[in-house]
UniProtKB/TrEMBL annotation:
Keywords: Cytoplasm, GTP-binding, Hydrolase, Magnesium, Metal-binding, Nucleotide-binding, Potassium, tRNA processing. Its cofactor is K(+). The gene is mnmE. Pfam families: MMR_HSR1, MnmE_helical, TrmE_N. It is found in: Cytoplasm. It is an enzyme of class 3 (hydrolase). This is tRNA modification GTPase MnmE. Its EC number is 3.6.-.-. The keyword tRNA processing applies. Residues 217-359 form the TrmE-type G domain. GTP binds at residues 227-232, 246-252, 271-274.
Amino acid sequence: MRSDDTIFAIASGHGRAAVCLIRISGPESRTILESMAGRVPEPRRAVVRTLKDPMTGEPLDQALVLWMPGPGSFTGEDQAELQIHGGLATRAAVLRALGSLENCRAAEAGEFTRRAFLNGRMDLAQVEGLADIIDAETEAQRRQAMRQLGGRLGNAAEGWRESVLQVLALLEASLDFSDEGDVPEDLEAESLQMIDQVRGEIGQAMANRSGERLREGLTVVLAGPPNAGKSTLLNALARRDVAIVSPIAGTTRDVIEVHCDLGGLPVIIVDTAGLRESADAIEQEGVSRARARAENADLVLWLVPPEGEESAPPPARRLLRVGTKSDLDRTSWDCDLTIAAATGEGLPELIARLEEEAAALIGQGDAIVTRERHRRALERAHGALDRSRAMLVSHGPLELAAEEVRMAARSIGEITGRVDVEDVLDRLFSSFCIGK
Ligand SMILES: Nc1nc2c(ncn2[C@@H]2O[C@H](COP(=O)(O)OP(=O)(O)OP(=O)(O)O)[C@@H](O)[C@H]2O)c(=O)[nH]1
Ligand SMILES: [K+]
Ligand SMILES: [Mg+2]
């Protein structure tokens, strides 16, 4: 993969469509426009042109053509866009023509955005925000992704890094000017104060886990004895026939997940095998998967059917007891809610309760940490600041305190991609669509 190649890709979806958007980026963009669309239009002005095969001169399509010279473009390079007709043969013909040009090749997943990042058009946290916008399934996720794209985390991280570098400058000045390597008292006080300020803010940002929950979705596991009505409830919540329902105990063995939008919040509902001792090896495996999912869930709905003996729920972080089959009129449970998934009775109340639970766990959606990557980087920074603080207070070696502060700055810099993050880049950009 060469970064000075000119790349092209379909940026709109695949399959037959009214219009298909082709993006082109790189040094040959202007030449490509000239050879296929004739004269290059004025920057950022859409014009209609007949696209021609550059080799044969054969007309390929009528297209809306845009010229967006760098460095003010999305990638920072010269860019062109072709809005062609979205027929399969048309797009194949135009892609073939582009591929036949020298130094011009199909883009890899995320390559446009990677170039935008490498050319300083966006920081790494913004790139992640962009990925999240494309993946957002609910309104709250979309809003959080927009805040990240707007630079919310990146700006905070830059502020922290700035302060930490100031502390470093203070410590290095003391190193240069004091013979004994002792920090003058006022400098020490100033350094400590700045360290504590940043430590406090980072600690607060780390304490809020709602950003990751919102990005990934809350997991709600449906658990209970066989035939409790778990799969019936899953189908009712999903409003489609996802899981097999039958009167035979032990019907469900695999874990079945459905993504739902509850009041704008993403909730993953998970149906599991009924919990019981079983001689059947496959059912046993299903039961152990069910237990594992319940243990890691944000919330477990423990379904209690009217028939059969009461069994004990699995260990869970948070659990609601839901009495099922309330239409059977044999109510003897002590439950938080009762439902009859088969008739719909009690479902609106259950959904309202789930929305409340989700809102409580996700909060205001005002978190700035939205990925584990951010949390890990901040944890490292926080730890390094702790150690530098302890060293300053105990009048330990100044060089070592300065080294810890430098470590903290480096860890914070990983968030925006200011410092070397090559391994992160490959993973992140490969998760993008081609054409983004
Ligand atoms: N009367 C009544 N029957 C129900 C209700 N919900 C489920 N059932 C019945 O109970 C039986 C078991 O339902 P499932 O949804 O398969 O139960 P499950 O908990 O998924 O069972 P396993 O997958 O075997 O653990 C089926 O015959 C359903 O039709 C309900 O609200 N009322
Ligand atoms: K069943
Ligand atoms: Mg089932």
